[in-house]
User: Which sequence fits this backbone?
């Protein structure tokens, strides 16, 4: 039985393996990954429940988006791809923290109060929630 998946020009993830995840190609890697994720297969949550075993096999080759009520809800991907994403996330976090430390070392810091920063963070969070 074939899994009822809508196909959106599913691009292979293999091409990402050729790109470095650090140095000058890091941004290229991220852009390529975003492009591939935007083109992944989709399946409804109901169909995913009915065909989970087959869906798990399919996710070993490429991520599959699961929709609920017509909206993107989750992504099923391989353990290897998940670990790769976590490494990228950690690498970015390390770079951001180091950038903050470098700013402090140069004497560059905000004169805003912690309350101002909290208000700004809440405002941005509310704007993101309103968009989704």
Assistant:
């Amino acid at each position: 039985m074939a899994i009822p998946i809508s196909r959106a020009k599913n691009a292979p993830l293999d091409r990402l393996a050729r790109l470095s995840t650090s140095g000058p190609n890091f941004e290229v890697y991220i852009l390529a990954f975003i492009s591939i994720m935007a083109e992944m297969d989709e399946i409804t949550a109901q169909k995913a429940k009915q065909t989970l075993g087959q869906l798990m096999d399919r996710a070993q080759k490429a991520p599959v988006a699961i929709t609920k009520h017509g909206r993107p809800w989750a992504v099923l991907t391989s353990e290897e791809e998940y670990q790769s994403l976590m490494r990228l996330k950690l690498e970015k976090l390390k770079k951001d923290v180091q950038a903050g430390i470098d700013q402090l070392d140069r004497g560059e810091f905000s004169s805003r109060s912690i309350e101002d920063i909290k208000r700004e963070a809440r405002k941005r969070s509310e704007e993101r929630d309103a968009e989704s």
Remarks:
- Residues 1-21 have pLDDT under 50 and may be disordered.
